[in-house]
Amino acid sequence: MAKYGYPTAFNLQNTIVVSVGGSSTQSSALSNNMNYYRLVSTVDTLVEMGENPTADSNSMLLPAFTIEYVTAPVGSKIAVKQHGSQSGSFYITHGIR
Predict the structure, then answer these.
(1) Is the CB of residue 76 less than 8 Å from the CB of residue 50?
(2) Percentage helix, strand, coil for the chain under 3-state DSSP, each rounded to 5
(3) For residue range 1-22, what is the model confidence (pLDDT) as tens digits?
(4) CA distance 15 to 86
(5) Mean pLDDT throughout 39-64?
(6) ∠ CA(32), CA(36), CA(39), 5° rounding?
(7) pLDDT at 1
(8) To 10 degrees, the CA torsion angle through 49, 10, 3, 31?
């Protein structure tokens, strides 16, 4: 068992939606003081996190409809780019304990 409970033991709030396409697109700055985020995309997506990230072929691959939990400091951004030919939507949801 995880130290603070299972990763799904969050109250999910404030979803940011980013369009996933052929070029890298950044989210707005993350603002959750708890620093936990739930990520899911409707298409296979390349993901990069940081202050001014750019998603490219070396970025983390998040397969379509796979939920991933991450931590990131306030002010970070998440950049996304399609992996393949389909475009879709990428969802970043604040996880609050």
Answers:
(1) yes
(2) 0, 45, 55
(3) 455 556 567 788 899 999 999 9
(4) 22
(5) 97
(6) 105
(7) 43
(8) 40
Query: What is the C-alpha separation between 72 and 50, in angstroms, rounded?
Result: 8
2 CB-side CA count, 13 A: 6
Closest to 90 in 3D by CA, of 37, 35, 32: 37
Average pLDDT of the chain? 91
Alpha carbon distance 65, 4 (integer Å):
25
- Bridge partners of 27, per DSSP, are none
Percent of the chain having pLDDT more than 90? 78
- Where does the chain have alpha helices with state H? none
